[in-house]
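input
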Amino acid sequence: MNEESFYFYMVTDKINGILITGITDNLSYHIKNRKEEKIGEFIKKYAKRRLVYYKKYSNLKDARLKQKQLKEGGRNKKMELICKKNPYWFDLYKDIEYTHCFS
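output
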């Protein structure tokens, strides 16, 4: 059985920097491309390469709903999520890169 997964994520350039949200079905690949600046001019211009938050969903609808709720809730809601899961704003990419090797 091939389980489909979607990820809601937030990236930034620095602690308390501008937060960019997104949804992808391949988080490791997507963040790797961000780090290597292979995703377009917006990424190159704003260089949001630090993955500070992500959550896995079993369907696209739920991931999109989460993104919509956070956009409507503003920056404070995003900050609450990050500070709860990742209070030191570490780059979580190494965690997903490592676990991806064993999935």
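quick obs: The CA atoms of residues 6 and 13 lie 23 Å apart.
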